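Write out this protein's structure.
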Amino acid sequence: MTATATTLPILDMSRLDAGEEEAAAFRADLRQATHDFGFFYLVGHGVSEELQESVIRTARAFFDLPEADKMAVENVKSPQFRGYTRVGGELTQGKVDWREQIDIGAERPAVEIKPGVADYWRLEGPNQWPEALPELKTVVNRWHDELSELGLRLMQQWALSLGADALVFDAGFADNPSTLIKIVRYPGKSDPTPRQGVGAHKDSGVLTLLFVEPGKGGLQVQVQNGDEWIDAPPIPGAFVVNIGELLEVATNGYLKATVHRVISPLIGTDRISIPFFFNPALDAAVPVLDLPSELAAEATGITVDPANPIYMTYGENVLKSRLRAHPDVAALHHPDLV
């Protein structure tokens, strides 16, 4: 693991296949990087350059579609908050994010909402796919499958690094995991300073694997227990990995979800960013780990924020975020919840 006060650590996952001593060293670095930063770069992960190039190329093809084709799958048509969001159509901390995107979740039938069914099941349902770009579904499904395998392997390594059984988190992902892929374009904007690409926030789930178009900066990570920001420009072929609020719950605050934001690029350029949110089933509650004494001594408890409570069940945690981020969708499809 390498890091300085102003850069994120870089972890090489191929060390897991280089013998038990190297694997143990990787796990120690994984735990330390997440404890100290909540973020790190991941290389040696096995996702091919060909697939990385394909997903960026297909993302560009989507955003190059005529406006009518993108608006045909606008997210206001989806009770599940799926589909295209125009520039300015999403909020973070009540402020407009300067980006456009398409949200793609796990493809399943919608759940019938009736008395006794938890509100978060409203998020389960089908995607909206643009008819003008059929290859998007093919590429995204391949991306989903490879990153799901990568995400589960990382969760198993975290479990071991925290003194738990390797499979302690697996049950939540075994049936109907609630994954989400956002394909995002940040257009250039300055008036005269850059705009909020996405505002400062923590992720509501377990794990995020972020792939950013090479050469395009803008991501910033807040230093743990401080006000300073670390720039996190992309490293060729690497994922930027961060944990969400549910790993904070699972470790009683030994690991902390870290605040991060994106600054819009300046006029004359743009930025493609593809976060993959690897999360358990909507009704899954993360197990709270019995940490070894030396780690438990550094667990400071779950962050208390009355404006942003953290729930143990993933569905409750993500529903609060979706309702806040897309008030237009919430008002149209879920007026009883807002």
